[in-house]
Design a protein that fits this description.
By secondary structure, the protein is an alpha/beta fold. The chain has a single domain (29-178), classed as Glutaredoxin (3-Layer(aba) Sandwich), CATH 3.40.30. It has helices at residues 3-24, 77-93, 114-121, 134-138, 167-178; strands at 48-50, 56-58, 66-72, 98-104, 127-129, 146-150, 156-161. The strands form two sheets. A five-stranded mixed beta sheet has the order 5-4-3-6-7, with helices on one face. It has a two-stranded antiparallel sheet with strand order 1-2. The chain starts with a helix and ends with a helix.
Amino acid sequence: MIQSQRITLYLLILIAGASWIFISADPSATTVGAISAPQAGFAAPDFTLKTPEGEEYTLSELKGNAVLVNLWATWCPPCRAEMPAIQKMYQEYKDQGFIVLALNMTYQDDPFAVVPFAKEYGLTFPILLEETSDVASIYQLRSLPSSYFINRAGIIEEVVIGGPMSEALLRTRIESILK
């Protein structure tokens, strides 16, 4: 086979392959936001947890709001350090549709310390009790605190592992998910 015939054959194979990809592609398929995963660009994994008073919160029912999901424990020094800043930002932005769900890792914390902690820090956002480690597992918890900034469409925009988060960082992330 001469070189020009070989080039023509390669071009035909290339065109056939590209055509097959174009024809077989599903234009309605999308992965960003459609699959639940605890990372930026994906839908936030859903959960339902209760407050110490028994009030139930389901993350998916909060779509339309900007949500900060914060995984924490009373014994965690960075968690304790960032709570005043989170409370301040919650007070400042709650009327714009900002919600904080503070998930206490009760399965590795003292359940009787949660309510006194919330009172001591003057926390007015919902404190949810994670008693089974199911939510910690779906959020792939590796370190406390872990924070997930979720936009109004239910998509995680930012994940912050560790802390404490400053007011400036919180403000920037909150304003981003409120858009």
